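User: Structure please.
Assistant: Input sequence and predicted structure:
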Amino acid sequence: MNKIYLALLLAMLNSFAYAQNSLTGTITETGTNLPLEQVSIYFPQLEKGAVTAANGVYKISNLPLGTYKIIVSYIGYQTISKSVIINEQQTIYDFSLKESAIEMEEVIVSTPFHKLQSENVMKVEYANIKDLKNKGSITLADGISTIAGVASVSTGIGIGKPVIRGLNANRVLVYTQGIRLENQQFGDEHGLGVNDAGIESVEVIKGPASLLYGSDAMGGVLYLNPEKFALPNSTEGDVNLNFFTNTQGISANAGVKTSTDNFRFLLRGAVTSHTDYKTGNDERVTNSRFKEYDIKSGIGYQTTNFKTEVRYNYNNSNLGIPEEIGEQSTDRSPMKPNQTIDNHILSSKSSLLFNASSLDITLGYTSNIRKEFEEDEEGAALHMNLNTFNYNIQYHAPKYGILETIFGAQGLHQSNTNFGEELLIPDATTNDIGFFGTSHLHLNEFNDIQIGLRYDHRKISGDTNGILGEEGYIASLDRNFSSFNAALGYKANFATNFVARLNLATGFRAPNLAELTSNGVHEGTNRYEIGNASLNNEQNFQTDVALEYKNEHFEIYINGFYNSINDYVFIAPNGDEIDGNQVFEYNQQDANLYGGEAGIHLHPHPLDWLHFESSFQTVRGKLKDSDNLPLIPANSITNTLRGEFNKRSGWVNNGYSFITLKSVFEQDEISLFETTTDGYSLLSIGLGGSVTIFNSPIDIRISGNNLLDKNYVSHLSRLKYDGITNIGRNISLGISVPL
């Protein structure tokens, strides 16, 4: 017994010794050797970091033994990415940062190796939510549409869903809190269901990501990064208020987070309320109003070689479904027809860290309760509960020379249950399982290769509904879908400032329940839809080429893609009518999409604070018979002139201003049941910064969108065919106050 006690004591002492491993040092400015305060030092894999004190000194404690990538970043200075060896109780690393007008780089989380964008083989777009809010975005879906290559299918301002290079719905996968978000995304009128409060940044993979995420990532991934926990032994809090003149909209959220050496906690609550939006014709769109309540919370525990966190998000939305410009009102409670949606998102992420490898386990549960209420009806006409459990297990194998490898297994169990009077899709269960491996080869400082292979299997079982031969009958369903997918990427630094990327990838998507089983009127689209139980997998092969030249004062990039899709699923009218509704049937045909983005960024010396940016995006989509694909965004060009004052300028700190002109071209490359959409230009202006009041920095921002009150309609607006235009002039005011 004494020997057992002695062994336990030695193990505890050994663990305590490990807990003393730390990294410390001083960060100074290159040339002056002056210490830099508030510089961020962060281990992406460990999710640990610190900021420097006034003397430039930092310290990160309780680090495991091994080699880990560290990121040193500060606004106005060049970001450093370096591998650091932790092999003794206290490791000392000093850093010197060089001033740079190039934007600070961020770690990309949506790709498996968590590298800086400049180090990634796959091109990923990154946007900070704070920057999107500074541009005056009303919702998260509205904000992401400002990212090149990304658009939004909208129903007013409250409902929007992402379109990535012409693909949307179940072809674009949304990740939040590290798990896939399932919320009946097959419907055009089904929005994101995520509030931007408590979201730190968004990453967009533009192209097939089935290798990493399985089915439904065929067109790309929208990856939402939640806000980080507070640094060890610190407490933070803030209140954020926004007002929007067009909708008399109010958006408010408040949060608090605190951390010790081991425990972490955060909580954030948000409320949003908007009246009917006003068009450029000074008319309010009846029942475009919406309300939203959101709570996000998280707890975490971290020791030297183990970390875990649990997050929970509850979102309640009450969304009016606009159909006309009728009663002019500023009421806030949605009328019928409307949707009420309750989203519960529970996630758990744990990591075991070994000396040369690690094991990550992510578990998730989402519950989407969707109810639709119609005029002259009591109770919910449509009531669907979608419950999804998913898992993601990844093993980061020990690094072998130039080779980094990750093996993983992913899957889900999903059930859909109906409780309403109407039935859109049947009661059904879906089961997924997938296995993959991917490797990154860092050949030298000029060449990197990434390869991967994956296998997936999906089983869908649906119940019989209705009576054979009668309207609304849905036969039982028992289908299996499987697919092998591969990816190969190459990144070359041909010169100090020139980077080229070539990525080849396959992807797949199993048809969804609506495509397989629909047989009835879809009220959200005002048409009678008939599914096809014999549909096959969609399978695609995409080629991406990205060229980028960057120096301290000039950047230029060109991204091109060609996406070939076998058995593309689409819906089209067959010429019949049932009860006054046009009949649409789901079919399959090979399709091709192609296009890309190009842009320049100029920040001339010595006016490093001045930036001129111009970007162009285009996409075309055609079926094999040469008919155009529906819901393809129009070509557009965006020009922005902005000033950034990262250091104190008078009484404003970190000030900024911008003026943007977005020109959208006519869209006449349309499908058989679409109409041409005229081009338009929108002018936006904004400014803001941080002011100090009572020794507390307060962020203030003001922006104006569509300042010329242009009366226009987006090609991707679902209200276009009701003769309803998009939102007119809108001024947004925002303030953020630390607690």
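Confidence is low (pLDDT under 50) at residues 1-19.
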